[in-house]
Amino acid sequence: MSDSSVVRKPDSGVGHFSEWSRQTKKEFLMEWQEDKAHEWIFVMGNEAGDLDSVTSALSWAYHLEHKSQNDSDPMKVVALLQTPSDQLDLRPENSLALADSKMSPEHRDLLTINELPEDVETLSRKIKGIILVDHPAPLRRWEDATVLGIIDHHEDAGAAPDAPLRIFEKTASCTTIVAREMLDELEEMDQEYHMPHELLQLMLGAIAIDSDGLNPKKSIDTDKTTSERIIKRSRWNDKDLMDVMDDLDDKLGDAKKDLDHLGVRDLLRRDWKNLFVDTPSPRTPTVRLGLASIPIGMDEQIKRTEWEQVFNWFVIHAAWTAEVSVDISVSLSKYKIKDPETGKKKKIREIVLAVRDDIRVDEDQADELFDVVYKAIEQDEKLNVKPWHANQKLRKRQMVWTHEYSDGGRKYVQPLVEKAVLGWK
Ligand SMILES: [Mn+2]
C-alpha cells in the first residue's frame, strides 16, 4: 500500500473565502520559492491586529486581485497580518468572526508575519510594494518598501505623499472606507466579481464592533450607508440593518470581553504596539517604546500570576519587554468600581511606566529617560494622576499611577510619552 492511502484530516476552513485566502497564500509562498517575490503586493493592517485591521487587509487584497483577474497582467496581492499566528486568538472576537466566516480554526488560510520566508527588511526591498490599511505610516521594518497606497481612519501622518492611492477619513472603522471603495469600483465594472457572504459578514462584524452597532456617537454617516450597501449584497438582505449590526456588536463585543483565561503575558501581548522614537539630541540614542492596553485592573492582573504578588507581574513584564526589545514601556489598564458617593459605576485607569537599561540605553540614560517621562505624566493636568496603592513594592525605574480622565487611553497617553521622549536631551 502506498503512503497516499493514509487518511489525512482535510484542511478545515470550508468557505469560499477561506479557500481563496489559502490559495493566495500558497501562490505567494510558491512564487517566493521561484524568485518571483518582486511581482507581489502586500496589503497589511496594523500590528495590534484587531478585527478592523484583519478585515480591511483581507477585503482590499480580495478586491484588487478579483478586479484585475481578467486583465492581461492580473495583480498578485496577498493580505499579510502583522500579528504572529499564535497571537491571533488572544482576541477572541477575531477568532469568532473568522470562524463565522468559515475560516480555518488554526488560521492556516491567513499569511502571518511569522510565516514570511525571509526577514522583513530584505523582503520589503524585494516585493513590488505594500498597501497600508488601518494605520497611517509603515512600521519601521517596512520603511524600505514602496508604498502603493494608504487607506486609513487615523490622523494622516504625511507618509508616502506620492503614493498613487491615499484615503484618510474619520470613519468608525477602516473597513468602512475599504468596503465603500470596493463597492464603488465593483459597480463600475462591466462584469462584477463575486462577493462571498463570508466576506460581507466579516466586514459587517468589523464595522459593528468599531461603531458599537452603528451608534451615532461612535460613527459617521458613511459607516451606516456603507453597511447598508454591504448588507444588501449579503444573505441577510431582507433583515433590518440596525438589528443585524446590534446583534453582531453584542456577540462580538461579548467575545471581546472574555479574557478570563488570559495570563499577564498574553494580556500584555494581545494589544501591544511598538514604536521607535528617534531622539533629536545627539547625546541620546533612538529608543524603542512599547505600549500595552489591558481592559483589566492591576490588582486583578496580579491575581493571575503564579504567586499573586506585585513582583510577579513585573518579572513577567520584564521578560516580555526583553523579548520584544523595548527600552521604555507603558502599560495602560482600567477597571470599574462603584462610586461610594453616587452609587454609580466609574472607570479607574492605571498607567505603568518602566524603563530598562540593558538594550539600547545604559543605566544613567535609563534613569534620565525614566525621569523625563515620569515628569510628563505627573505634570499632565488632564490626567491628574495619583500614585497607586502598592507603589512601595516597586523597584527602580518603575511607577504605577491611577487616574480618572475618561479620554486618557492610549490615544492620549502615547503622544504624551512620545513627546516627552523626543524632548530628552
Ligand atoms: Mn481601525
TrEMBL record:
Pfam families the record matches: DHH (PF01368), DHHA2 (PF02833)
Domain DDH: 41-207
A single cellular component GO annotation: cytoplasm
Domain of life of the native organism: Eukaryota
Residue stretches making up the DHHA2 domain: 251-400
Cofactor: Mn(2+)
InterPro entries per the UniProt record, alphabetical: DDH_dom (IPR001667), DHH_sf (IPR038763), DHHA2 (IPR004097), DHHA2_dom_sf (IPR038222)
Keywords linked to the UniProt accession: Hydrolase, Manganese, Metal-binding
Molecular function (Gene Ontology), one example: exopolyphosphatase activity
Protein name: DHH phosphoesterase
